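(Deposited chain)
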Amino acid sequence: MTYEYANGVTLGAMQINHKEQHFVRSQGKPAITKLAIEMQWNAHSSEHQMRTPIVRGAPYTSMIYENGALPRITAERPLKKGQITIDQQEHPVQCGIGRDTYSESFRVEREIKIELDQSDMTWLVFLSSPMEFRCASFDASEEVWKLNLPPGVVMDLPSSLFDLQAISSSSSRSMVRLAMSNNCTSGQNPQCKCYCVFGSPC
């Protein structure tokens, strides 16, 4: 498969902004098997940490947040209509537009749906426990580069940035799972037209 960084979604943490990571160790040895490894990031000045099992063929990306670490989810494509859907509700949440223009906080019990416009992808985010979030979406500019972006975010101008930040959690330890549910949501992306069921077949 080919992978385009700009079309990805990144799982990070509010308290962890550096790119240092290490393998989780068990009995002094790295947690590595033939099909999986486990990696961990730690905050510099606190006990907050996040870790992820990377398993070959897994349909989900999972991140475990420990010691009160709060999830942060970013994408480098603009949101469709600037909105996200929470817990399958009929009325989407309108995210803020522009730097430091975040939405009012909203509670998510279990699930967030994120539709990205340019990539035509729909992503689902599943929570193990309820959390309060806020979100914003803005065009890339010089000011975007001043942000403390999560590890793995590669800004490639021209681009946009979607930022979803957890501001509180009902648990000191939680898991967030991310999955792509549709890579051709509306059929507008010519790169995936042969995988879409819109109109006549290829």
Notes: The chain is about 0% helix and 45% strand. Residues 25 and 32 are 9 Å apart (CA to CA). Confidence is low (pLDDT under 50) at residues 198-202.
